Amino acid sequence: MKIAILLKQVPVKDATLELNGDGTWIDEDDVQFEINDSDHYGLAEALNIAKDNDGEVTVVTMGPDRVKESIKQALAKGAHQAIHINDEDVKSSDPLTRAKIIAEAVKGENFDLILSGLQSDDYGYGQTGVLVAEMLGMPHATLVVETEINGDKIKVKRELEGGWFQNIELPLPAVLSIQSGLTDIPYATIKGIMMAKKKPVADVEADDLGVELEGGAFKLEKIYTPVKSKETAVLKGDADSVVPQIIDKLKNAAKVL
Amino acid sequence: MKDDKTLSFMKSLFMGEIQQEILFPYPQQDEDEKENLKMILQAWNEFAENSVDPVEIDKIAQIPDEVMDGMKEIGMFGLPISDEYEGAGVSKTSYCRVFEEICRYDTGIAVMFGAHASIGTNGIVLFGTEKQKAKYLPKLASGEYVAAFALTEPGAGSDAAGIKTKAVLNKNKTAFILNGEKIWITNGGVAQIATVFAKTTVQQNGEEKEKITAFIVELDSEGVSRGKKEHKLGIRGSNTASLNFDNVVVPVENMLGPIGKGFLVAMETLNTGRLGLAAGCIGGMKELLRQAMDHAKSREQFQKTLDRFQLIKQKIAKIASETYALESIVYLTTGLHDKGGIDVSLESAICKIYGSEVVWDASDEVVQIAGGLGYSADYPYERYLRDARIHRIFEGTNEILRMFVALSGIQGPGEYLKNVGKALRNPIKGFGLLTGFAAGKVKDTIARDELKNVCEELKEEAEQFNALVARLAAITESVLRKYGKKIIVEQYTLNRIANIAIELLGMAAVISRVDTRLKEGKSIEKDLPLAKLFCNEAASRARREARYVDRNHDKERSEIAEFLSETGKYPMDMLMEK
């Protein structure tokens, strides 16, 4: 059974973030990166399914050269091989373009299952897995909390709102996005670390996949740090003088009257 | 002097010679190893962050099973064991860096781990036969077996050669029968195997002699019993217990190293173990600094946070510069060890002495910075103090190690192990074994050597170092002329010589580290104040020790101590006397 896990590299959780020059993204120069938290759960599920079904797990990661480190880490945690889609120059951020690139890169691999995490810690769109499924014409399920392979089908349990769950069955191949927090995330073993560099990593250039990289579905115009907008005013005086002031504030400043 | 066998930076210093080719450039890990190390640290941190609770471990005085199992699962137990035997086979440098990180979370875990992966396993790694390695190392690597090192006895602590445990060969020469008691054994209550040292009868020149031999003993063997867990001041998570051997049958194939060579096995095993311990102290120092800064930056007095006061700055700067020096000597030594062909026994001993003392001072100062909170058991500070105290005692007390450093140093390179061991056991007879030590020979080799091409930024520090090396060599020569064979009992003097040597290694390592960084085009902006503060403090301490060699109050010291030995108590009662 061939399983892919779409794994993203994002800035570490406690990184100090500065905006870049044109205010379209963060300045990545002094930032450390790590595997996106949600993707750990996807990887955990992929490894569990592989273990029970004699499967092989392929890590699929898009990004510049620095993502090799996260790839190696996933390999150290037990994945068998990896595909690195190098987009050094692309910096495509919209999920549609990214999904097109990923779909092109993996379509020849004939994966039985493609897993992703819930969402990424950087942009947080939560769309990539579903879009890849659509492009490959595969069925998909999101917020998956349990899986069970059943011949050429897969039974999944999805978490709905209000404590409800849904049990459905999908034909394979399928794409699942895995809910976070339900399994233990796998630790890299030291032996795994030592073996990781011997595992195959296929390099694919995003430019070579025939996807239109310019433009995209949308463009990020500007990001900014939240501006402090709340203000506390202390009104002084006796009741007669304060009440008109409060009414004025509620009418003209807060606009609730 | 410079044949490979005797290549040793510290030993050459006693002769006034500075082996720059050993010191420069400061050792570096290759990129591959660095990357692996980074990932190992990450794996450990991910695990420890979720699973290690030092407060709980201290309270229940036990390392929870989940922590032990998790560490085994990650593969920590096999960290230094070669991949041939299913370990990870990391270098000493990587091992020490990981050990540092373990200690940062919990010293008790670090001590358990060191007893297993370092002194518990090293005997087999260094002296084991192919068969012994194949039988035990994979199990030690997986953690199926936890290891211990059993040398100390009720009557033999520092005087390790004085052990009474006996191993007698049975009639058909298939096994030794082991009888005796070992105390203070780390992992004693939880280990599956132990390296045990016992006296055996050896034929030497037609005579029967009692000599120490090492054995691998499986602790589930009949006749082995374990004492109850010791209640300790600190490192409470680690298990310390006695081991009793009552007619335990140890197959001859479990003899470790040649018969009668157990003392060598013990000393070599401990030599390599000391580096891990010193690395643990780096982890402790870093964590102490973090805790101290957390407090000092938030606690306000006189409308200022504590970190704004000079007397707090003084403490912080001292701890930070000593951390820098400790890091510098430990990773210089591990780097030289990994390079191979260089004797680092003195350097390792110095790392242990220095690390254990600065981490103790630092934990004391951090309690002081925390004030009343420092004394409260509801805060972590007092635990660091308790945990840090053991380092000066175990794996060779700092007193014994200072004698070892001074005696090995003045003995000159070569055969230090056998001879110093003997010399310590039997001072007068032992000195004859301090081979080739003619004072004249020393004199011939004393030429004022200098650090060459040291960067401009540390020129003054290098000059102080050069002067002190010459001073050490001169002192070595003069005390030998003065005391001759009796130098061995002149512990006041040996102690001073050792103290000078300790400071010199610190200075050398720090200078090499900064100089190498600069020559590689890296910034030394953060390094310089740390390096300068340490080097100048170290040099002035060393000069003071050197002064005291000739001008001191040792006579009064001895008089006082002897007076107390006679009376057993303070001899006066000022207000009550007639």
Give me the CATH architecture of chain A, please: 3-Layer(aba) Sandwich
Q: How would you describe the shape of chain A?
A: globular
Number of strands of chain A: 11
Would you tell me the overall average pLDDT of chain B? 92
Q: Tell me the overall shape of chain B.
A: globular
Alpha plus pi helix count of chain B: 20
Taking strands numbered 1, 2, ... along the chain, how are they ordered across the largest sheet of chain B?
A: 1-4-5-8
Instruction: Report the average pLDDT across residues of chain A.
Output: 90
- What distance lies between the first and last C-alpha atoms of chain A, to the nearest angstrom? 64 Å
Largest Cβ-defined interface: A-B, 15 and 21 residues
Q: Which residue ranges of chain B are poorly predicted, with pLDDT under 50 across at least 5 consecutive positions?
A: 1-5, 413-421, 427-445
Radius of gyration of chain A: 23 Å
Strand content of chain A: 15-25%
Based on the coordinates given, report the CATH architecture of the largest domain in chain B. Up-down Bundle
- The topology string of helices and strands of chain A comes to EEEHEHEHEHEEEEHEH
Structural class of chain B: alpha+beta
Strand content of chain B: 5-15%
Largest sheet of chain B: 4 strands, mixed
Largest sheet of chain A: 9 strands, mixed
Tell me the total number of β-strands of chain B.
10
What report would you give on this structure?
The complex is a heterodimer of chains A (about 260) and B (about 575). In chain A, helix 2 packs across helix 5. Helix content of chain A is about 25%, strand content about 25%. In chain A, a hairpin with a 5-residue loop joins strand 8 (about 155-160) and strand 9 (about 165-170). With about 260 residues, chain A is an alpha/beta fold. Chain A has six helices and eleven strands. The mean pLDDT of chain A is about 90. Chain A is globular, with a radius of gyration of 23 Å. In chain A, strands 9-8-7-10-6-1-4-5-11 form a nine-stranded mixed sheet, with helices on both faces. Chain A has a two-stranded antiparallel ribbon with strand order 2-3. The N and C termini of chain A lie far apart (about 65 Å). Chain B is α+β, with helices and mostly antiparallel strands. Chain B folds into four domains: about 5-10 and about 265-400, Butyryl-CoA Dehydrogenase, subunit A, domain 3, CATH 1.20.140; about 30-145, Acyl-CoA dehydrogenase/oxidase, N-terminal domain (Butyryl-Coa Dehydrogenase, subunit A, domain 1), CATH 1.10.540.10; about 150-265, Beta Barrel (Butyryl-CoA Dehydrogenase, subunit A, domain 2), CATH 2.40.110.10; about 420-565, Butyryl-CoA Dehydrogenase, subunit A, domain 3. Helices cover about 55% and strands about 10% of the residues of chain B. Chain B is globular and about 70 Å long. Mean pLDDT of chain B is about 90; it is low at about 1-5, about 415-420 and about 425-445. The interface of A and B includes residues 188, 190, 196 and 197 of A.
